[in-house]
Amino acid sequence: MKQIAILGFGTVGGGVADILADSADLIAASVGEPLALKKVLDLRDFPGNRFESLLTKNFEDILDDPDIAIVVECLGGKTFAYDYTKRLLATGKSVITSNKDLVAAYGAELLELAYQNKAHYLFEASVGGGIPIIRPLTHDLKANRIQEIYGILNGTTNYILTGMTDKGSTFEDTLRDAQQLGYAEANPASDVDGKDTANKVSILASLAFGKHVYPTAIPTEGIRSISDEDISLALSKGYHIKLIGRTTLNDDGSVYSYVAPHLVGENNMLSGVNGVFNGIVVRGDQVGDVMFYGRGAGKYPTASAVVADVIDCAKTIDQPQPPLWVDGAAISEGSEQESRWYVRAGETCNASVFGAFDMISASAFITKSMNQHDFIRALDIFKKTNTVVNALRILD
Amino acid sequence: MKQIAILGFGTVGGGVADILADSADLIAASVGEPLALKKVLDLRDFPGNRFESLLTKNFEDILDDPDIAIVVECLGGKTFAYDYTKRLLATGKSVITSNKDLVAAYGAELLELAYQNKAHYLFEASVGGGIPIIRPLTHDLKANRIQEIYGILNGTTNYILTGMTDKGSTFEDTLRDAQQLGYAEANPASDVDGKDTANKVSILASLAFGKHVYPTAIPTEGIRSISDEDISLALSKGYHIKLIGRTTLNDDGSVYSYVAPHLVGENNMLSGVNGVFNGIVVRGDQVGDVMFYGRGAGKYPTASAVVADVIDCAKTIDQPQPPLWVDGAAISEGSEQESRWYVRAGETCNASVFGAFDMISASAFITKSMNQHDFIRALDIFKKTNTVVNALRILD
User: Predicted ipTM?
Assistant: First the structure.
């Protein structure tokens, strides 16, 4: 019987404890032996909780317990989580996490540390909540060279953009609604400024291309600039505005990644991904486009992905895998990336500097397809006589 | 270096040979050692083909070759494929297949035979072509009790229904177009009568619920009865007609599976799955709904899924898994299954026997939600005074 510990008894950690207890039969059948939750680390008290007897406030109780083989890290953040994860892996304990900040910041180091100590470091739950994406990328699509991954990776921003689209309301009003309903946090910066999406892009890019793409190398734009006017101008041409995280492999082996709002065309499956749902498109050289869709967050969806990793880890505990990625990614600035663009100016404008274009109001237009370098050059000229309120890529 | 053989040098078998050769570096890096294609069985000659020197017409050349550890079966059908697969597994060779007919008909037997002989029997490519679905079900969603799986599982019928919807043309005309473009076979029976979908439902149900659900236990209705009039009546209420395969687990442990055309509502992600694409929705008790989407067929998408299984098999060749399912499923007739229904009569009709309903033309209506038993009872009464042209379930 393998023994498990959980670090952090918050939403996801609590969900993991529940599933380990409530689906113990299913898990034992799958692993071939039962798994037992032995200890849960949290600084808070949980009087009357059914796991109260397992709680400890002392990390060393877990680190020094030779019976604990697998530790689930649900602390979040990069301070204690980083320190504890390193110390656990160094003793040969396997670590499973949903902590996207940590994997995005230190994945290469932690994967190498795990491998050196014959341990596993798994993080299926770090991207897309319960949607299977990490294992499909590392197993099912293994016969493909991945060329591109893009998607709607953050439920909060998608909920806000969907709300603005459906109700025609402003960003501020919709954010306030989302906060009241618990779909956005009191401090929504990490979501609405795109940082959460950038962390997920970092993980997907690193996995797909085998070299660590750090979030600092991912130009990131959030959705605060999107107004109800942008939403309705886009809709008038059949587009939905979505926050997209994207990473592409260039022919020279360099990787271009970014996070930004896009106008998504009606024929793209992502235009139907609404509310708190996530959708992730993977383009492989053999398979073409495949999409994974579901709730990208939530207590039990995320916890079920953590437990799937626990099961996988328990079944293959003696077969640690070489690191999924290492340091040394070549980062591209994306100047060759082609797309059409939506531009909204602060006043009636003349868009002739962009060559062929399609005016959608007196002050807004869609350009022809042009590479980013040429677009930015044209935009700089345009700015000499106009105020640019928004410039967004189009994804058909 | 592990050696591979391929049975059947048709579309998928040829694609597998190409990927094994052209992505040899990628595959070797993934497995940890190179894989070599040693023999290819086909009764035809392929003069000048780059794999010509590997071709044999004699199955025993492969069966008796002790160096061949993994055999890819791309013969199709249930005659030679069944005999050869059994003989290979009996000698302890692992078999990878895309042959849905064979897995649906003999999966329980072949999985048990593989396990007894410490071999693998893998079939990711049998459902959804290159879309990852088998391994996500058996690994990523392992912490979930699967409650239901439904989806668009056949690209040919979806191409025809999408064509009828977009162009307003008849079934016969659209089928002819599809045949000319190579999206439908000269004898389209297996696709348009729903048998191909039923085989895929059989595999998904067996996997999800652990007991073999044979295609003979799956009531199957194809799309020949769908007329352009049905399509346009459905569209007038925002529905797209799609051929859906579906399996659900009842509270008593019995399984209800069927294949039939449905009216799919605009808010269901499947309504956006068009042309030759497939979409598969899995409902788990923890994760809720997740969807997998992509091209459900095609040479390289399907071959890439076969090769992913080859890689997985080569990496874990010494760790055969217990059978994914066994015999003994309890089959339900689905009389408790609830849905609203679309009914079209051959004449102006009165639908009062169905209780609350919504007339959408003088001869067509949508019922309230009712269970199948009650619906069929009402339909029998209705038939005493009316001709029923079509009766289809609604999926919102």
Answer: 0.93
